[in-house]
Amino acid sequence: MREMVSDLEEHLKKESVPSSLREEYEEEVEKNRQLESEVEHLQQELFKKQGHREGGPAKGLQAYDGMSQLALKKLLRTLEKEKVEVEWELKEIEWRLDQEASVSLESMPNASPMLLLW
C-alpha cells in the first residue's frame, strides 16, 4: 500500500493535476496520517492493558494469583467481550476509511485513471 501511495505521489508530481485535486489528495493523506497515529496509540493502550507493563508480563500476572478460579473465569469472559468489541470497532473504522476513500475518489470528476485505481 505504501508503494502504491508513493507511485501516486510521483504521478501527481509528473502530471499537471488541478490544484483542487491536489489539495483534496493532501487532505486525505493528512487524514490517513492522523488515523495511523490514532491506531498506533490504541495499539499501545491495548498492549498496556494486556499486562505488558513495566516489569514485564510476569509482574502483571501477580495481581491474578490471589483471585479465585470463578473470578478469573469472569474476568476472562469480560476480556473476551472487550476484545470482540475492539475488533468490531476496528472493522468499523476500516469500513469508514474505505467509504471516505471511495467518496473522495468519486468526487474527483477530472481524476486520472491512475488515481481511480487506487
TL;DR?
With 118 residues, the chain is mostly helical. The protein is 79% helix and 0% strand.
Describe this structure in words.
With 118 residues, the protein is mostly helical. The protein has one domain (2-117). The protein has helices at 2-14, 19-49, 56-61, 69-106, 113-117. It starts with a helix and ends with a helix. InterPro entries: DUF4600. Pfam families: DUF4600 (PF15372). Residues 1-35 are annotated as: Disordered. Residues 1-16 have a biased composition (Basic and acidic residues).
**Ends: how far apart?**
9 Å
Low-confidence stretches: none
Multimerization status: single chain
Instruction: Determine the strand fraction and express it as a percent band.
Output: under 5%
Number of helices: 5
Structural class: mainly alpha
Overall shape: elongated
Q: What's the total number of strands?
A: 0
CA-based gyration radius:
22 Å
Percentage of helical residues?
Answer: over 70%
InterPro entries: DUF4600
SSE arrangement:
Elements: H1 2-14, H2 19-49, H3 56-61, H4 69-106, H5 113-117
Quick tags:
118 residues, mainly alpha, 5 helices, 79% helix
